[in-house]
């Protein structure tokens, strides 16, 4: 997936708490928005924006907004830089919301099941303070209640689909190098090498997902 990245509207978070699991809270509207986006374009990749709030210990996702103008294929999606610029300018009118990151889907291909693991491009062009949510969508073989998995993902079935959802973030130091820059407009996650200078400390980790859909099934 490709999106021209820019600075977060309200600035980066001041580092995550070391040694403590990050939590991601998805309200019911966010959950429905993401799964419906997946179903609408199933067999191709959905792609959307996550807005909300963050603390050193938690991402609170308030809105999941699918991009309307992306070019998409089975395992890729791309948003034009001019469209991203329009979105950025508009979001400046909502200074209390952070641009948290984005979500996208992985879909079943023939008999190959979709997984929630990040691709190399997903990792390479993920900003240090980004939240990235991946939804693996497969055709359901049997009904399953929604549950929290041992790997911190959540999963369950709706209609004829089986979903697995994972949230990723970079654990990083509270002290950030001021020389680190975001990709310029026109250079998306799959289209530039500017992000390579960030000197990130680790690979992305999976966060604990808190969601009313799962909690109601316990």
What layout of secondary structure does this protein have?
Elements: E1 23-26, H1 28-40, E2 47-54, E3 58-66, E4 71-72, E5 77-78, H2 81-91, E6 98-107, H3 120-124, E7 131-139, E8 147-148, E9 154-158, E10 161-169, E11 205-206, E12 208-210, H4 212-215
Parallel strand pairs: 1-3, 1-12, 6-7
Antiparallel strand pairs: 2-3, 2-6, 4-5, 7-10, 8-9, 9-10, 10-11
Q: Characteristics of this structure?
A:
10-stranded mixed β-sheet; Cytidine Deaminase, domain 2; 218 residues; alpha+beta
Task: Give a verbal description of the structure.
With 218 residues, this protein is of the alpha+beta class. The protein has one domain (23-215): Cytidine Deaminase, domain 2, CATH 3.40.140. 15% of the residues lie in helices and 30% in strands. The protein contains 4 helices and 12 strands, in the order βαββββαβαββββββα. Strands 1, 2, 3, 6, 7, 8, 9, 10, 11 and 12 form a 10-stranded mixed beta sheet that branches. The protein has a two-stranded antiparallel ribbon with strand order 4-5. The model is unreliable at 1-19 and 173-199 (pLDDT under 50).
């Amino acid at each position: 997936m490709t999106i021209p990245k820019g600075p977060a509207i309200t600035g980066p978070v001041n580092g995550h708490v070391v040694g403590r699991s990050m939590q991601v809270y998805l309200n019911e509207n966010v959950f429905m928005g993401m799964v419906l986006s997946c179903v609408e374009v199933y067999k191709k990749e959905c792609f959307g924006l996550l807005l909300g709030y963050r603390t050193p210990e938690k991402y609170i996702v308030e809105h999941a907004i699918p991009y309307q103008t992306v070019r998409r294929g089975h395992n890729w999606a791309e948003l034009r830089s001019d469209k991203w610029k329009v979105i950025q300018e508009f979001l400046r009118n909502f200074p209390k919301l952070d641009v948290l990151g984005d979500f996208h889907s992985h879909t079943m291909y023939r008999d190959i099941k979709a997984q929630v693991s990040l691709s190399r491009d997903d990792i390479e062009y993920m900003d240090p303070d980004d939240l990235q949510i991946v939804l693996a969508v497969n055709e359901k073989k049997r009904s399953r209640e929604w549950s929290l998995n041992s790997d911190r993902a959540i999963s369950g079935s709706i209609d004829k689909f089986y979903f697995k959802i994972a949230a990723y973030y970079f654990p990083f130091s509270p002290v950030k190098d001021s020389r680190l820059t975001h990709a310029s407009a026109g250079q998306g996650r799959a289209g530039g090498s500017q992000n390579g200078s960030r000197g990130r400390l680790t690979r992305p980790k999976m966060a604990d997902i808190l969601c009313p859909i799962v909690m109601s099934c316990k």
